Amino acid sequence: MSQPTPDGPVLVAGGAGYIGSHTVRLLQEREIELSVLDNLSTGHREAVSAPLDVVDLGDREALAEVFERRRPAAVIHFAAKCYVGESVEDPSKYYRENVTYTWNLLEAMRAADCRDIVFSSTCATYGEPVQVPMTEDHPQVPINPYGHTKLHMEHMMQDYAHAYGMRAAALRYFNAAGAASDGTIGEVHAPETHLIPLVLQVALGKREEILMFGGDYDTPDGTCIRDYIHVDDLADAHLRALATLQAGTTTLACNLGTGTGFSVQEVVEAARRVTGREIPARLVDRRPGDPAQLVSGGSRARELLAWEPKRTGLDEILGDAWRFHTAHPDGY
Ligand code: UDP
Description:
Blueprint (H helix, E strand, L loop, with lengths): L9 E4 L4 H12 L4 E5 L13 E3 L5 H11 L3 E4 L6 H6 L1 H21 L4 E7 L22 H20 L2 E7 L1 E3 L17 H9 L6 E4 L11 E2 L1 E3 H16 L4 E6 L5 E2 H12 L5 E4 L8 E2 L5 H6 L8 H14 L5
Parallel strand pairs: 1-2, 1-4, 2-3, 4-5, 5-6, 6-11, 7-10, 8-13, 9-14
Antiparallel strand pairs: 9-12
Bound molecules: uridine-5'-diphosphate.
């Protein structure tokens, strides 16, 4: 498969976060000029070895100054809030930081004649599945503020692309997982809510047990099924999407998943295999708002981006995450 090489310089907003830092690493490996813009609210300085501007997307003057100084040819935009539960409790934060800050970013791009943007969307824009696997033409009816704000971001970028000659790619992630295979960067959230890092914290002895949310779903083992996609495969898709825009595509939206789902029970069992640790687990009530299954369908990313996920095995994904967790038991 050919390796697309987008033109830089690229400005990576949110490049100190989980998926952003892996994308920065890949841009560096491909020798594409870049800089990172991050307010470090949830990102980690240690995850980035590229030029970094610690700037908040709420600060329009500082943003304009960064565009003036860095003169990016394109933006990859990861800077957003991403917790469903928090978005329900504090939607204001999500509308401000996901919607308004993205508007600030698009305005800064327009003012600087920077036309191409690739950004993190999510399968949460689809809402409750009416069919599984979910293809890109699945109805987009989000069921929480997080999903609403991400859908607003998609619409905003499509509208800007059509009106102002910009080009935008929305990449709808399923469950990002794994870590750089050398164990140097990985997933660190505080507080942690995601299944895989939590299971590995149990393996490390930092938590007593993993709670499995719901054993009465309509799935083969009764636990929820998700499509876990390796973070390095996500990173690769961003470079392909940017190269596709730069080759003349105005807008595109595609799912990024493997098309294969694994249950919570299967993840816990794989983690026991990979770590060789016991990992006590307990079934508890469902977590509100969790659909039984979220699995990516269709072949749009393959067709449009020639993208094929490479690190698709659950043991491979967990093995990479475990290497990072053992090297960084307390985070960065
Ligand atoms: N999950 C779980 N225990 C946990 C955290 C998550 O059983 O401590 C389940 C959750 O209900 C979902 C799956 O693991 O079915 C993946 O959840 P995660 O929060 O990692 O990602 P999400 O699918 O919410 O984006």
